[in-house]
Specification:
308 residues, mainly alpha, Cytochrome Bc1 Complex, Chain D, domain 2, two-stranded antiparallel ribbon, 11 helices, 2 strands, 60% helix, 1% strand, extended, disordered N terminus
C-alpha cells in the first residue's frame, strides 16, 4: 500500500511535467512557424527583386546596343540619306529637318536667310531683310506656351502645386508646431544668467567649434569677413556672455547669422561664446572695421555649467 501511494503521485507529477513540456514545445513551434514563414517570404521577395533588377539591367543593355547598332547603320548610309534629304518635299517636313540635323545641316534650326528679299522699309538709309524668325526661336516660344499651360493646370486647375502664399502658410504652421514642441524653456525672450567658462578644456572646445562652424563668416581669428569683427569692443547685439550666447543660439534673422540651436548643445554654445570673449583685444591682422556700439564684456556669475 505504501508503494502504491508513493508511486501514484510520482506518476501524476511526471505526467504533468511531460504534458507541460509538450505544450511548451507546441507553443515554441507555433511561435517559430510565423517567423520562419516571414523569413521565407522575405527571402522570396529579395530573390524576386534581384531577378527584376537583372532583367531591367539586361533590357537596358540590349536597348543601348540596338540604338548604337542603328546609329552605326545610319552613319554608313549617309550618302544615301543625303540623296533623300535633297528631295525638296522631304526637306520641308519635320522629319526632313531632323534628318538634316543628323547629317550636319543646321538649317532646320537656324532657318534660311534671303539677302535679296527686302522688307521695303527705309529709315535714314537703314533697311532690313524680309526673313522669318529662326526655327530655334519659334520652337523655344512654343515650349514656353506648353510650359505656361502646364503651369496653369498644375497650380490653378488641379491645385496639385502650392503657390507662394500657400507655401508661406504651410511653413508658418510647421514653425508653430516646432515652437509648441520647444516649449517655454526655449523662449528666446527668456533671459539667461550663465557665467563665462574659464576652464582650459572648455576654451579649447569652444575654439574648435568656432573653427568648424563660425570661421567661414567671422574669420579664423574672428577678424570679421561676412560677419562682424568679434575681437574689438564693438557689438551689434551685445557683448555680455549671455547676449553672445543668445545670438549664437537664436541667430539674427535677415542678417545671415544662423541659429545654432538644435545643431550645438547648450554647453557647446556657451563654450563658443566664452571662447569668443577671450579674443577681446587680440587685434588680428586684416581686422574688419568696428560695427555696432562700444561695450565692455562682463563676466557675470550665473548658472552653474552642470545644469546646461
Amino acid at each position: 500500500m505504501l508503494t502504491r501511494k508513493v508511486t501514484l503521485p510520482a506518476l501524476l507529477t511526471l505526467s504533468t511535467l511531460f504534458s507541460g513540456a509538450a505544450a511548451l514545445a507546441q507553443d515554441a513551434a507555433a511561435t517559430a512557424a510565423p517567423a520562419a514563414d516571414a523569413a521565407k517570404k522575405a527571402a522570396e521577395t529579395g530573390s524576386e527583386l534581384t531577378t527584376v533588377l537583372w532583367l531591367m539591367g539586361g533590357l537596358t543593355v540590349l536597348i543601348v546596343f540596338i540604338l548604337l547598332l542603328l546609329f552605326a547603320l545610319l552613319w554608313q548610309m549617309r550618302p544615301l540619306l543625303w540623296k533623300i534629304y535633297e528631295i525638296e518635299t522631304i526637306r520641308e517636313q519635320w522629319y526632313g529637318r531632323a534628318l538634316g540635323l543628323f547629317l550636319g545641316d543646321t538649317v532646320g534650326l537656324t532657318g534660311k536667310y534671303q539677302e535679296d528679299v527686302m522688307a521695303g522699309h527705309d529709315y535714314d538709309g537703314i533697311t532690313e531683310y524680309d526673313n522669318d524668325l529662326p526655327p530655334w526661336w519659334k520652337y523655344g516660344f512654343y515650349l514656353t506656351i506648353v510650359f505656361g499651360v502646364a503651369y496653369f493646370i498644375h497650380f490653378h486647375v488641379t491645385d496639385s502645386g502650392k503657390l507662394s502664399e500657400a507655401e508661406y502658410q504651410n511653413e508658418m504652421a510647421e514653425a508653430a508646431l516646432m515652437a509648441a514642441k520647444m516649449g517655454a524653456n526655449d523662449d528666446p525672450n527668456k533671459p539667461t544668467d550663465y557665467k563665462v567658462l574659464t576652464a582650459a578644456t572648455d576654451i579649447e572646445t569652444g575654439k574648435s567649434l568656432f573653427a568648424q562652424n563660425c570661421a567661414a563668416c567671422h574669420g579664423q581669428s574672428a577678424e570679421g569677413k561676412v560677419g562682424p569683427n568679434l575681437t574689438d569692443e564693438y557689438w551689434l547685439h551685445g557683448g555680455e556672455v549671455n547676449k553672445v550666447y543668445h545670438t549664437v543660439k537664436y541667430g539674427v534673422q535677415g542678417k545671415g547669422m544662423v541659429a545654432w540651436k538644435g545643431k550645438l548643445s547648450s554647453k557647446q554654445m556657451l563654450q563658443v561664446s566664452s571662447y569668443i570673449l577671450t579674443l577681446q583685444g587680440s587685434k588680428p591682422a586684416n581686422a574688419k572695421a568696428p560695427q555696432g556700439e562700444k561695450e565692455t564684456a562682463s563676466n557675470a556669475a550665473g548658472k552653474p555649467v552642470a545644469q546646461l
